Amino acid sequence: MMSEDIFDVVNEHDEVIDQQPRSVVHAQGLRHRAAHVLVFNSAGAAFLQLRSQSKDNHPGVWDNACSGHVDAGESYAVAAERELMEEIGLLVESPLEELYKLEACPENGMEFVTVFMTESEGPFELNPEEIDGGRWMTPTDIKTALLAEPKKYSPTFRMIWEQLSP
Questions:
Q1: Is 145:67 a contact under the CB 8 Å cutoff?
Q2: pLDDT, tens digit, 9 for 90 and up, residues 117-153
Q3: Which of 14, 24, 38, 156 would staple 20 via disulfide (CB 3.0–4.6 Å)?
Q4: List of residues 6+ apart from 128 with CB closer than 8 A
Q5: Domain limits, the chain
């Protein structure tokens, strides 16, 4: 049997106040941490992943190239690099660029989210347990798609793109 992930529980200032298993954090709506990574190619298109239908949160919707929880004691940056490897097989050689941070709120599952960016041309090795597919989209096409069919994209993805392009 696999052991359950342990997350840092944080207060409204993103300060660690406890550690709890993933199931408890989600069931009780406790504040915790996540990292999202935007991957752009040299033409300026962003790589999006189609979340696996087996995901417990937001299955079968489009999301950033990778996203994931920050494990207990882990930094946002380390979590982002780990998730890139786990989800799309991308090993970065230089530190990710940190863009900004979203406040924890009900719309993003009570997660403080640090958003990072990197550049890669792919191709990627998509983890079939995490991802059902992937595609490149220009920022203009993303904006259009978010207006036309917002429910096809994760809530956090929508929040990130709203902040990226006012």
A1: no
A2: 999 999 999 999 999 999 999 999 999 999 999 999 9
A3: 24
A4: 52
A5: 6-164
CATH architecture of 6-164: Alpha-Beta Complex (3.90)
DSSP state, 109?
T
Handedness of CA 139, 76, 154, 100 (dihedral sign): negative
Q: What secondary structure, in 3-state letters, does 120-165 show?
A: CCCCCCCCCCCEEEEEEECHHHHHHHHHHCHHHECHHHHHHHHHHC
Please return the burial class of 76, using the count of CB atoms within 10 Å of its CB with bins 0-12, 13-18 and 19+.
Answer: buried
Whether 31 contacts 103, CB under 8 Å: no
CA distance 79 to 38: 14
Q: Which two tokens stand for residue 144?
A: 């259009």
Identify the three-state secondary structure at position 112: strand
pLDDT at position 148 is 97
What's the CA gap between 132 and 53, in Å, rounded?
7
Contact between 33 and 69 under an 8 Å Cβ cutoff? The reply is yes
| Separation between Cα atoms, residue 151 and residue 148, nearest integer Å | 9
